[in-house]
Amino acid sequence: MEFYRLKLAFSRKYPTYNLIYNMNRKILILIILFMTLEVSTQSFKLSKPDIQKKEILAPGVIYLLDKDAEKEFFKYDLNPREIAKTKLLPFKNWIKGILEKKDFDSLISKTNILPRELRKKLKVTGQNETNDSESLEKEWKTFYKNYGKDPYCGYDQFLNTKFEEMSILPYEMNEPISVDVDSNEKFTQYNVTYLIQINPNSLTPHSFLVNTTFHNSNNYNFHFLTRYINHCPIHNSDVGNIKWYSENGPEREELEPGIFFKKPTPFVKEKFLINHIDPREVAKIHVAKQANGLKHSFELGSVPQLVERLGYKFLKYSADQLGVEYLDWDPGDTLRLIQENIDNQISRKENSFCGLNDLYQHKTTQIEIQPENIRLRDADPREETEIFDINYLVTFVLDKEVNGKQKSFQFLIKYGLRENQISTNSILDLVSSDCLKR
Length: 438
Fold this sequence. Notes:
The chain is of the alpha+beta class. 37% of the residues lie in helices and 27% in strands.
């Protein structure tokens, strides 16, 4: 939706960018995804994260260390602190200059928008109605010049802020993309997002999700404000409530007989708050129901019900066993062959696929559900609703003892949530086993 800005920046810096665009559409998808990770709540103030350590990167810049926040970066052998030091420090000078000059035009030029939302705030209707971001930006600037107010982001108030300090906390990233332009030109593109708070210790801190795009082969660096939290853009204003966030409930509670909800970690809890979604409510209404469905399929011996929900890691492992190539979600005969291999192995009493036959041979005594992550899926500006990908750790505890402990299977399951309804679900990983880590 704001891709033209990124594309223009890339094109100016790299003449070969258009070639990359045609060769590898994944770059487009990745950039659009990061440009749409922007959900806000109607009325909340971010709490101070439960941070064990902090470090001063530069005068007025604090880096917050949190294992949960950093783990996505470590997954790809990236150092989030070093990225913050080399890629985010320039943001300090930029935002400080914006505030000193009260430069509204430059600020909105790097702000992500939802066209339908901005149109409504600007009261753009009739012949002037457009989804074109550039035209809407001009309308936005004109409104500000005429009235001295910003009806969309409230930047008129932010521009009256005096910069004192800012904190930087890693928020999320996606898998890096390797791009082969030609035999002589290659690079890896990274898109990472940080939660930045301006004047975090003041009574009125300002919180942003800042996306930075960079390459490993040069000094190119591009910043974009994907979300001004509690201001703009707002995707999920009518879904959920925030009471759960301040409630001091138990670490573990029973949602229904035999199914327990475990609190998320402080950082994950913060991400759900930012996205205005109650993870306990989603677990109670949707995840528990589907987990119970799997439990019943184990009791009935219905292996296909589990197999059809297994995601890429499981299918790729099965394909490697068979010596066949498996591409992402191959819909043809190869997929059926791969799934049949898993089905046949699970049905064995010995040497089962990742030991999953235990789920069918032993009774499930309890199920534990814990939120693991949430992110906004790439949004289509023409759509009026969004889809959130929510990950839960779902653990099935069996009546089988191994080394004096109850045998359990912990799955990482991704649910697609749209308007409080589950649209998709997929079992991503078997966390309790090294079976797929090959």
